[in-house]
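Hi L.,

You mentioned the student needs an example of a multi-chain input paired with its predicted structure. This one should do, with 819 residues in total across all chains.
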Amino acid sequence: MLARVANNLFWMGRYIERSEHLARYLNVNYFSSLDAPNELSQSREFVLRSIMFMASNEVIGAEVNLKEEDVLFNIGLNIKEPYSIIYSFNSAHENARSSRDIISTELFESLNTINHKIKNYNAKSFVKNGLYDFTSMITKSTLELRSKMRGTLLHDELYAVIMLGIYLERALQVTRIINAKCSDAAVERLKYKDSPENGHLWATLLKCVATYDMMRRLYKKTPTKKTTLEFLILNPECPRSIKNCLNQMEKYINILSKHQVVKSNSAAFLIKKLNAEFKYKLIEDIEVDVEGFISGLIDKLVVIGETLGDNYFKITNYPVIKKSSTSKQNQ
Amino acid sequence: MKKTIELPLFSSYEFNSNFYDELFNKNEEVRKIYKTLFKLFSEYSVTEFNSLNNRAKEAFFNNGITFQVYGSDDLQEKIFPFDLFPRIIDNTEWNKIETGVLQRSKALNHFLWDVYHDQKIIKQGIVPLDLISSSENFLSQMVNLDPPEGIYNHISGTDLIKHADGEYYVLEDNIRCPSGVSYVIGNRAAVKHALFGVFNKYNAQTVVDYGANLLEIIESVKPKGVDNPVCVIITPGVYNSAYYEHSFLAKQMGIDLVEGRDLFIQNDFVYKQTIYGPEKVDVIYRRIDDLFIDPLEFRKDSLLGVPGLFSAYKKGNVCLVNAPGTGVADDKAVYTYMPEIIKYYLNEEPILSNVHTYHCSRKNELSYVLDNIDKLVVKPVDESGGYGISIGNKLTKEEIEKVKETVKANPRKYIAQPIMALSTHPTYIEESGSFEPRHVDLRTFTLLGKDKDFVLKGGLSRVALRKGNLVVNSSQGGGSKDTWVLKK
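Structure written out for the whole complex:
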């Protein structure tokens, strides 16, 4: 497989996954805030800030007055904002288009049809009353795409590259969503020092990652910070937990690197190393410094992404070398 | 001359006895071969047909069988106009076309070898020297260079028209990078979906085997010493208007679609950059024009090509499909010598006729052309895509004077032909909600390889969508139709 094409497919996977998380976060946060238990978590300002923090990774100062329609438009349909859903999906489509000879006709057709739908979505009706429809359409569409990937692509290194993109992005998005919600919880704690823990907030976090029902089945109790984090970070059976993402990444890097010796600091090495660290981790180890754990995890995932690029997707600008000159190029 | 048919979908069909109508004969009766198909179309209401037509267009759009145009503020995707009424060619008629286009492709291949080697045909006075020496498409770099297995034009696209006399004539040969074959296959898929009830009543030849045959052909011209050649297609990139076709062919053949930046040259061998490092490439089906393939040898500002590629080709380490320099032979001035070229190399009579052509480079013919511009089509010899063509009977007096000046300034650059009466075919016109006759031509696709040749049994029928227009190129607002070649 061409290095350039592999890079496109890796990013196609990442952008599809990103679109899904953005859409669900927007949907769940907005609608769950409508029946939140206290004044703060019900307030528009608070919800909009949380949404902006997760999507754009930027903390908006208290002096800025956020307008609901602007925030929704920017995150949903503003093609000029790199954190928007439309930007993300459009990037997935562009990446797929420049590798359409290698992906299945069925997968490309779905991607293309969905991209047309998003591009032609009416922005006015979206900010007024289309939020639920639009975000649900995105999450359904990404499910359709994943099923086409699983069912219509050869499960070889091409598939492994796409899956590495998907699971790396999922690990990053889930980590960032946890981060955003923990920061909401911290703000709440400042305001309501003596009130009991807000179960609603942790339920929202679980719903943002589509894991609420799974978690209830396993723990049978109202989610707390501790049980929620344990489930989302460490439970290998939860298909959206960090641990599960790492397991999947290890599975697919094994396919990609099956004929290669694993050198230290290669992408394969780094993925296996991080997964090994998680193997004997307890929630108690994380609890002592959640913030530090999260920022350390994000850093490690980013390095893995960069190393994958370096190991497999790089295009070198080789000079033309003639036989007469000495060649140092490895072949 | 005017008559309106009583059926809703044909209410605006105007007959014109100056042209050969492929659906109706002179007595305005449906030709035998179209009877079953016509019955189906005659049963549709306008509303039913519109919805069928829209569904077909939607399928093209969703499948991304599109090209991009710059809109007011962003890139817009468009589908190539497509018509659901297929064109039918019977077996006898097709056999003549098939043997005729194959004969031309073979003769052109011999001609190219000769032009770049001994130039016997010139020395013997059969074609004039200045035909070659003044051609912008003659590549001196190709002189005495032997392409693998002696093949230059592996892929030829021959454009034919059906004249008022019911005979096919060759309009031009395209042997640089002829395009359009993906639409032949796309159109067939669309027609099968829309007209499934009638398709199985016609015994049409399949067109989906093109990719498999193309792969066999390009593998057959592998460089010496290579057993299992690695083949790739090189494209200028996603923004090229034919990108869909490039990716389609790559997918059909299961080979990589590369861009210039994916390849590099080392010690005169070509390598592609894969996820596991460099891998040698043996055959390149290039969809980049000659002058852009290698900035070290041709246009220095080309970012599309691969530096050092031509040197690797010269060494025989890689095969380029088609060979560089083929443009010298699909020049419209060379076209006029095709009957002589076929006789000279193959010792055969041409199976397909040429349209009579006047060379503006010859004094007496030039003066005829200048006196009769209103009755002629004047074409530049080395342009493709329908650019620079003027059709005499559509010009104003001032425009005729302008054409005269242009031709006089550079007579070698122009040829002229009588205005041919391209046949007409029923084409759905959305504005009138009816089929109307529109002019069509036919592009065929011929492949030449080592000990193998292949003509695609079908082709691209290109339609001039504007009423009365004779130029069918897609770059000039033309559309296309599925073409059924019937089995015996």
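You could point out the following to them. Residues 157-191 of chain A form the longest helix (35 residues). Chain A touches chain B through 37 residues (CB under 8 Å).

Best wishes,
N.
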